Amino acid sequence: MTQEEFKLLFDNHFDSIRNYIYYRSRDEELATDIAQDSFMKLWEKNLDFDEKPLRSLLYKIASDLFISKYRREKVAQKYLVKLEPAIDNHSPEDQLAYQELTSKYETALEELSEKQRTVFLMSRMEGLKYQEIADRLELSVKAVEKRMSYALSYLRNALGR
After folding, report:
1. Class for domain 92-160, per CATH?
2. Name one GO biological process term (predicted).
3. How far is CA 63 from CA 5, 42, 47, 138, in A?
4. Longest pairwise C-alpha distance within the chain
């Protein structure tokens, strides 16, 4: 793989690899580090350039690095982006209701299995279609649909909607 091909691969897939790990870990810094390490490991392998298999390999490397890091440090997943309600023109009751809903949402997300949370966040945060998620995670579309269905059902019940 030439430097130009590697740069193309990096530019096209770095953000999605980083987001994939972020959805699993909820730690932006860790996600960035693992994404970078994944590309370095791929570069060191010096493979022929074929984008689709290399993209799949990147996801596999990133997943393996994440699992290794998790096992080695046994770090609890405890970081989520805190959403701050806009203060202008909202009553204290509205702000309190928003904070309660945000808290319920964060708790419900944490209670989802890692697989369901990953599929849900890839769909909702990145706006990916089920086929794209299935390709990235090397799953069938039916498996993605099932995980998403369960996640949405659970979130509806948890949020009382």
Report:
1. mainly alpha
2. DNA-templated transcription initiation
3. 23, 13, 19, 12
4. 60
DSSP state of 88: T
Domain with CATH 1.10.10.10 in the chain: 92-160
Ranges of H-type helices in the chain:
3-25, 28-45, 51-73, 92-111, 114-126, 130-137, 141-159
pLDDT in tens, the chain (161 residues): 788 888 888 888 899 989 888 888 888 898 999 999 998 998 888 777 777 778 888 888 988 888 887 766 653 333 333 444 444 556 777 778 788 888 888 888 888 888 888 888 888 888 888 998 999 888 999 999 999 999 989 888 888 76
